[in-house]
Design brief:
Layout (H helix, E strand, L loop, with lengths): L6 H11 L2 H5 L9 H29 L2 E3 L2 E3 L4 H10 L18 H14 L1 H20 L2 H13 L2 E6 L15 E5 L2 E12 L8 E9 L10 E7 L1 E3 L5 E4 L2 E6 L10 E6 L5 E5 L6 H37 L1 E4 L8 E3 L4 H33 L3 H37 L10 H8 L9 H16 L2 H16 L6 H30 L1 H6 L1 H29 L5 H23 L2 H10 L9
Parallel strand pairs: 3-6
Antiparallel strand pairs: 1-2, 4-5, 5-11, 5-12, 6-7, 7-12, 8-9, 10-11, 13-14
């Protein structure tokens, strides 16, 4: 089963939900005209569907292989990567000063959905490079930017993030990798694990961003610094020179994303790998969070992408798999399973949640553009606060749903879904890593409750709730049963999210453990409620367009039906998370350790 980018829904979410026109009106984005955006989407869809998607299956079966210290990527990857570089796709959202195209992050996120849906194993090299570029651009010196950014932005070189180590896991305070000053550079020694595309054959150089400690650094996260450690040391004319003292010692054998090499990297086996300090000593973790926040939005988009891929495959299968009679017809002959109620329920659940994710993901990406480009500094700060609140929700809610929707895709296939040849199982295996990396979803929930809500007492979330209520008010006079049902769902969602936010904001002050025990249900409630709000906005726009005969009526009618399904079927059980989030603290720690 191949992949076709859902361009109609992408365009709708871009324009009617995320506000592409408002983003394009921001200073520096004037070139992001409607015609240009459409052309980018069309060409990206072709490359995703015709170039990347056909390589997905073989990439899973063959995977990446380590041979004599060199990682060989899956068949076809070097050729399609060259096509990416030649087409300028790596440079889309980056600073024109260093060779970027300066397009909005909103457009980049939309295109990224296509890459990740078509071939996640390949798409990961693009994701990590994007984050590394962002970190160097924000925190590197002028000399470092000039040396590395043009090559990384073009895609001639790629970047990685080297955070954790065997003994550390998510607790980066336990990092042991050392950095000893040696003239104008440092010598890095230690081992890093789970390094995505830490070694590969796609580019002539790889730029590693490495967290390490200097000898006199204090313990804990305050002692961590960030270093640029290239595979080959650049020469004066910017070409790869001497091989640095680093190597990939093994590849992890994983449940999924087999085409993406997950490397164990060893630095300094022969005296020390040359590394260059980024910014100041001791501030490495804060610098790396620039990269991690960028990556967390991208990982959320991956959850959306794999869900879309699983849905497309399940829908196609359901329309061709003939089995059993139609319960709604007197005719005895068997029909395709798409006629059966439970299959319809599963497909509608997949579709509705995907559209909610897409709306919220694009809305968040538009917020990144607003925070970067708004001339009003106070408005930009408020927008950034909203983005910071939404990032853990996008990362965790999207990736949890990516798993659930990929699993539903297997279920739609029945027994055939459990057979590798159909391809449905690959989507489920590939999706499983997403709730784990870039901070597990439990860490995202902790961040949402313990940092973002605690920071302002829930004020930023209350601002979103106020907008939910404003949308419901706008819909009050809209005609039709569909919008009335959707509006009722938005009101219920706003009530539940407000109640939950007030409880969490109060709990973090005096009973943080209780708030953390309910943090995952809170995040789930927030994501589902906010997704329902944006689907309601979509439905309101769709009805207006139907009334004025502006657009494809079948597409617009489907928007109304999907939003109503979400409001009546998806929202109610999610809003019931209000009880568990308040109650969890009473029993989560009630058993002794030995009883678990």
């Amino acid at each position: 089963m191949t992949y076709t980018a859902p361009l109609a829904d992408m365009r709708f979410a871009l324009r009617e939900v995320a506000g592409m026109a408002r983003v394009a009106a921001l200073p520096g984005y004037e070139h992001a005209t409607e015609d240009t955006v459409d052309a980018v989407l069309e060409e990206a869809a072709k490359l995703a569907g015709n170039g990347l998607a056909p390589l997905n299956r073989d990439g899973d079966k063959v995977g990446a292989k380590l041979e004599n210290g060199v990682v060989r990527t899956a068949p076809g990857f070097t050729g399609i990567y060259r096509e990416f570089v030649d087409g300028g796709w790596n440079s889309l959202p980056f600073d024109p000063e260093f060779g970027g195209q300066g397009m909005p992050w909103l457009l980049a996120a939309t295109v990224q959905e296509m890459w990740q849906a078509a071939n996640m194993g390949f798409g990961l090299v693009l994701l990590l490079n994007q984050g590394a570029i962002d970190a160097i651009h924000h925190h590197g010196s002028a000399e470092q930017k000039a040396a590395y950014l043009p090559k990384m932005i073009s895609g001639e070189w790629t970047g990685t993030m080297n955070l954790t180590e065997p003994q550390a896991g998510s607790d980066l305070a336990q990092l042991r990798t050392r950095a000893v000053k040696d003239g104008d550079h440092y010598l890095i020694s230690g081992q890093k694990i789970f390094i995505t595309y830490g070694e590969h054959d796609l580019t002539e150089n790889i730029v590693h961003l490495v967290l390490a400690r200097t000898p006199d650094a204090p313990p804990g996260v305050r002692g961590i610094s960030l270093f640029i450690v290239p595979k080959f040391l650049p020469t004066a004319d910017g070409k790869p020179g001497k091989r640095n003292d680093l190597r990939c010692v093994s590849l992890e054998h994983k449940l999924g994303i087999h085409a993406s090499p997950t490397c164990v990297m060893s630095f300094g086996d022969d005296g020390g790998a040359v590394g260059y300090l980024v910014g100041e000593e001791g501030r490495g973790l804060s610098y790396m969070f620039t990269m991690m926040n960028n990556a967390r939005l991208s990982v959320g988009i991956q959850g959306l992408a794999i869900a879309e891929r699983a849905y497309q495959q399940a829908s196609a299968f359901a329309k061709t798999r003939v089995q059993s009679k139609d319960d709604g017809s007197p005719q005895p002959q068997p029909v395709s399973i798409v006629h059966h109620a439970d299959v319809r329920r599963m497909l509608m659940s997949m579709r509705a949640q995907i559209e909610a994710m897409r709306a919220l993901g694009y809305y968040t990406a538009a917020g990144i553009d607003g925070a970067l480009r708004q001339p009003d500094k106070e408005a930009a700060r408020r927008t950034q606060d909203r983005v910071d609140l939404l990032i853990p929700i996008v990362k965790a809610w999207f990736t949890d749903l990516g798993n659930e929707i990929a699993s539903t895709g297997v279920q739609v296939h029945g027994g055939m879904g459990f057979i590798e040849e159909t391809g449905a199982a690959q989507h489920l295996r590939d999706a499983r890593i997403l709730p784990i990396y870039e901070g597990t979803n439990g860490i995202q929930a902790r961040d949402l409750v313990g940092r973002k809500i605690a920071k302002d007492g829930g004020e930023t979330m209350q601002g979103l709730i106020a907008e939910m209520r404003a949308t419901a008010e706008e819909m009050k006079s809209a005609p039709g049963d569909d919008l009335a049902a959707i509006r009722a769902g938005v009101v219920a969602a706003a009530d539940a999210l407000e109640d939950a936010t007030e409880w969490v904001a109060e709990s973090v002050k005096g009973a943080l453990v209780n708030a953390l025990a309910g943090s995952a249900p809170f995040l789930r409630l927030a994501g589902t409620a906010l997704g329902g709000w944006l689907l309601a906005r979509s439905a309101h726009v769709a009805q207006g367009k139907l009334a004025s005969r502006d657009g494809d009526p079948k597409f617009l009618e489907a928007k109304l039906v999907t939003a109503r399904f979400y409001a009546e079927v998806i929202l109610p059980p999610a809003l019931a998370q209000l009880g568990p989030l308040k109650a969890a603290g009473r029993t989560v720690f009630a058993l002794a350790e030995e009883q678990l």
